[in-house]
Design brief:
Length: 358
């Protein structure tokens, strides 16, 4: 057996030995629904019924402490998750501004606005938009963080040219990484993509919950959450786990993705998260040779759709070589040149978003 296997077994045994309030252990109860141990970090989930949340808060803490006491464990993130069917979720609890005595403190108390950036399907430029929108907010003088919750294809490390691993702070919380003045955390910085891909629902929700609650975000004006594409469990977990100020939907002008965008809008409405606006990405192509503007996917689809569903239109981002090249190089356009043509578009979108929330 390798050293790593020994350590993994020891950590799992420590977790399973944690006693439960009603007697017995976590292991015997079969509630450990997810476990991963890599590079000194354990991520685990404990399945509970929603009404058990308060009773299990102490179990969660004991589980983290037990893991941290295991040799080789530098950071431990344990979350309580309740398996959900695909049936519509219950409306999210609205967290009170101040925690009532004896209740759990609110998530992210020092973050003014948590904003989800979502799309109905992949490949519409959601991550590119998230990064440049965050940099646009930063150019307006705001403190901004990004959580890459796109567990099935984390791309923030690439887009921002991040290398290395997040450090564990003095209080054992993970410190976010820094890029272009932004605080950044991505599931891609903690586990490799293949590991994340095989996670089932509870682990996905667990990882997202932890990245919101167990990362030392500090004081931020905005935390943008780059959501997984689609409208499934992971989206609901974020909508319910964080107190979202609202959601920004990214869409291309094509009809199909507009249908997907509509689905995204409906999902957020169902859980009472306001739609802050729609960003149309790849709205038109600016020819590098002649500078002419070509509306390849048709003109104004997202703007018309925004009007139809009563959501504000935040702006249109052209399809440019510059944006794509910058993304591949990990040098986002809005960081390098916030006053350039494309940079200015994102700063304007950021300004409209800020206005919506002021
Ligand atoms: P998603 O997060 O929706 O899956 P990405 O942001 O990863 O999409 O973008 C998908 C691909 O499209 C990337 O290669 C990215 O560089 C490129 N891309 C996104 N938006 C633009 C744009 N406006 N102009 C040019 N390329 C873009």
């Amino acid at each position: 057996m390798t050293d790593q296997q020994h350590r993994t077994d020891a950590a799992r045994a420590a977790l399973e030995a944690v006693p439960l309030p009603a007697g017995g252990t976590l292991g015997a109860s079969g509630r450990v629904s997810g476990f991963s141990f890599a590079q000194g970090r354990v991520i685990a989930s404990i399945t509970i019924a929603p009404e058990e949340a308060q009773a299990f808060a102490a179990v969660r803490e004991a589980a983290q402490a037990a893991l941290l006491a295991t040799p080789g464990v530098a950071a431990a993130l344990v979350a309580l998750t309740s398996e959900r069917s695909s049936a519509p979720a219950a409306p999210p609890p609205h967290p009170a501004p101040a925690a009532p005595a004896g209740k759990k403190p609110p998530v992210l108390p020092d973050v003014t606005h948590v904003v989800a950036v979502a799309s109905g399907k992949g490949g519409v430029g959601k991550s590119t938009t998230t990064v440049n929108l965050a940099l646009g907010l930063r150019a307006l003088g705001l403190k901004v963080g990004i959580l890459d919750a796109d567990i099935y294809g984390p791309s923030l490390p690439t887009l921002l040219g991040l290398r290395g691993q997040p450090k564990v702070g003095a209080d054992r919380k993970l410190a976010p990484m820094q890029a272009y003045g932004l605080k950044v955390m991505s599931i891609g910085l903690l586990v490799d993509e293949e590991t994340a891909m095989i996670w089932r629902g509870p682990m996905v929700m667990s990882a997202i919950t932890q990245m919101l609650a167990e990362v030392e975000w500090g004081r931020l004006d905005f935390l943008l959450v780059d959501m997984p594409p689609g409208t499934g469990d992971a989206q609901l977990a974020i909508a319910q786990g964080a107190r979202l100020s609202g959601a920004v939907i990214v869409s291309t002008p094509q009809d199909l993705s507009l249908i997907d965008a509509r689905r995204g809008v409906a999902m957020f409405r169902k859980v009472d998260v306001p739609i802050l606006g729609i960003v149309e990405n790849m709205s038109h192509f600016i020819c590098t040779d002649c500078g002419a503007r070509h509306a390849i996917f048709g003109e104004g689809g997202a703007e018309a759709e925004a009007k139809r569903i009563g959501a504000p239109f935040l702006g249109a981002v052209p399809l440019t070589m510059e944006l794509r090249r910058a993304s591949d190089l990990g040098q986002p356009v809005t960081a390098l040149d916030p006053d350039g043509v494309t940079g200015r578009i994102f700063v304007e979108i950021a300004g409209r978003l800020r206005e919506r929330l002021s």
